[in-house]
């Protein structure tokens, strides 16, 4: 699934959430952050706000864009764990963020048992002999 949002002076943040009761794993990947039409030549700082291993909120700047020197930044599918908030910490934008959202469905226990059997089959194969000279 594609993701896109725009941060401006009037809409400074966007939060991406998933249903807490959803049993799937979710991966959110940020691909590109760029200034769009109407942006001023000022520093626009975009932060990602999430939670650390101690469940404390942390904010990390991921882009500092300026129209005259760096209007676009490729983040090479920077992976995040939802929920995550994108915030325009400085500047007035507009800044467009794009990426993708992947949903990975967890396999049930019957598939895990099949995986164990295939590992045993691999162990029964004869060893590979070295080539003769």
From TrEMBL:
It is found in: Nucleus, Nucleolus. This is Nucleoplasmin-3. Residues 110-125 have a biased composition (Acidic residues). PANTHER family: NUCLEOPLASMIN, NUCLEOPLASMIN-3. The keyword Acetylation applies. One of its GO terms (biological process) is chromatin remodeling. One of its GO terms (molecular function) is chromatin binding. Plays a role in the regulation of diverse cellular processes such as ribosome biogenesis, chromatin remodeling or protein chaperoning. Modulates the histone chaperone function and the RNA-binding activity of nucleolar phosphoprotein B23/NPM. Efficiently mediates chromatin remodeling when included in a pentamer containing NPM3 and NPM. Residues 3-102 form the Nucleoplasmin core domain. Belongs to the nucleoplasmin family. Keywords: Acetylation, Chaperone, Methylation, Nucleus, Phosphoprotein.
């Amino acid at each position: 699934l594609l993701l896109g949002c725009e941060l401006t002076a009037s809409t400074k943040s966007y939060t991406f959430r998933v249903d807490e009761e959803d049993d799937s794993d979710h991966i959110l990947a940020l691909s590109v952050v760029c200034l769009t039409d109407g942006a001023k030549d000022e520093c626009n700082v975009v932060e990602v706000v999430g939670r650390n291993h101690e469940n404390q909120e942390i904010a990390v700047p991921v882009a500092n864009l300026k129209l005259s020197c760096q209007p676009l930044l490729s983040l090479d599918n920077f992976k995040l764990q939802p929920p995550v908030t994108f915030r325009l910490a400085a500047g007035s934008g507009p800044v467009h963020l794009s990426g993708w959202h992947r949903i990975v469905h967890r396999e049930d226990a019957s598939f895990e048992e099949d995986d164990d059997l295939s590992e045993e089959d691999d162990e029964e194969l004869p060893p590979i002999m070295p080539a003769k000279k």
